[in-house]
Amino acid sequence: MSPRATLLELPSLDELTRNPAGLMTCIDPLLPIQDRIVRNVNDTKTPTTRRIPRVIHVSFKSRCLPPEMYDAMEVWKTALPYHSFYFHDDQAVDRLFALSFPEFPQLKSLMRCVLFRGAMKIDVWRMYLYGGIYSDMDQYPIQETFGEVSPIGQDDYAFFLSDSWNRPSQWFFAAVKRHPILYFTMQEIFLRLHKLEDVERPNVVFVTGPDAVKFGYGISMGWKTDLGKDIYQEGTHKCLPKFGDYTVTKKRNTEHYMKQLDMKEMVQWNETHRITRKQRIEWQSGVQHWMDEKNSRMRKFGGTCLELLYSLDAMT
């Protein structure tokens, strides 16, 4: 592959995720998650074709998952049987970020300021390149209301639910590849990384999280909508005509379509000890929540993103 990859030179999702052949084994109680690849999806018995690819993307450190996360991912496979399911572990994420692309020449350099991989891995980038559905690992669909033809419609170019602040959801969204919302979200992330004052104490929500998605969403529509002044209201909105014929659909009744693992619920750890579900998942997987990782991390640099880049580039 040439240093600057074009759309035609992108690795396939099969090449990117490298689903293990044969039987996987994990340390008890972890369970191995496999990709599911559906070929020639439009030749199956699906009721309609669809603009957004029938592909589900999820990401975690390892393919060995805590049982509750594994069960949540299996719900996706059951609810959307004609969708391919691709699991991106840390190695798959590294393979993707090792590539260079004309749209984002600053990507490789600025990613060196991303020290908290789990929370700042920028799933928007993968979606921009491949399209499909993205979900966090603790989210799963309600099978009675989320299926092959609804709520994502056949003519949708992008689809979001609403978070508790009525922002477009970052923990779940769907889009065609190269949608303007995804492009402008990436550019917004780069701007915020440039301005990052402390690489070891980032406010993830505002740097690579839902606030960046909110701005990418707003910029694509020029901060106004054909349905009224509120760009975050429910409905299908048109992006600015100069960006093409793209639209975005947003729904507010999140609880009607999705469920989330209750991380605060007390669950059994052993015969005598109860802990929160969050603690149990962290102990089983060895993956800390980014807030805990940030608070426990020993400072090694303590400077801005630009200062870190200078120390890496000009002082070596």
Automatic annotation (TrEMBL):
Name under which the protein is recorded: Glycosyltransferase family 32 protein
GO terms (BP aspect): mannosyl-inositol phosphorylceramide biosynthetic process
Gene Ontology cellular component annotations, sorted alphabetically: membrane
A single GO molecular function term of this UniProt record: mannosyltransferase activity
InterPro entries to which the protein is assigned, alphabetical: Glycosyltransferase_domain, Nucleotide-diphossugar_trans
